[in-house]
Amino acid sequence: MSTTTYAGQPVTVNDEGFFEDPAQWTEDMAPEIAKSLGIDQLTERHWQVIEFMRAEYAAKGTGPTVRALGKSSGVSVKELYQLFPKGPAKIAAKIAGIPKPHGCI
């Protein structure tokens, strides 16, 4: 575990950069995290996925897989890969400040 700073707030992250405590996350952190992952601007569609990820984590204790995201978030799998290249569930989880979803490599 280590500490990093987003939006001027220190947060604890694991060795892959995922938040250890999702309660430390704020919306102000998301654009900064996204930029560090190569996403220059978060659109309304990005936010739809981020909010869905956080809601699923709050309800189930884990983030959804890409397949579940594509079925339930209102964003198709194809669009998920356009919004979050290099692994939509993993990248969206990191931006949403939740742990890596089960099943992500």
What does this structure look like?
The protein is mainly alpha-helical. It has one domain (2-96): Orthogonal Bundle (Arc Repressor Mutant, subunit A), CATH 1.10.10.370. Helix content is 46%, strand content 10%. It is built from five helices and two strands; from the N terminus they run E-E-H-H-H-H-H. The chain has helices at 29-36, 44-60, 66-72, 77-83, 88-96; strands at 2-6, 9-13. Strands 1-2 form a two-stranded antiparallel ribbon. A hairpin with a 2-residue loop joins strand 1 (2-6) and strand 2. The longest helix is centred in the middle third of the chain and has 17 residues, at 44-60. The protein starts with a strand and ends in a 9-residue tail after the last helix. The model has no long low-confidence stretch (mean pLDDT 93).
The H-and-E topology, N to C, reads as EEHHHHH
By oligomeric state, this entry counts as single chain
Total of DSSP H or I helical runs spanning 4+ residues: 5
CATH class: Mainly Alpha
Q: Supply the CATH superfamily name.
A: DsrC protein, C-terminal domain
The CATH architecture: Orthogonal Bundle
Key structural traits:
single chain; 105 residues; mainly alpha; Arc Repressor Mutant, subunit A; two-stranded antiparallel sheet; 5 helices; 46% helix
How is the topology of this model organized?
Elements: E1 2-6, E2 9-13, H1 29-36, H2 44-60, H3 66-72, H4 77-83, H5 88-96
Antiparallel strand pairs: 1-2
Helix pairs in contact: 1-5, 2-5
Can I get a quick summary?
A hairpin with a 2-residue loop joins strand 1 (2-6) and strand 2 (9-13). The chain is globular.
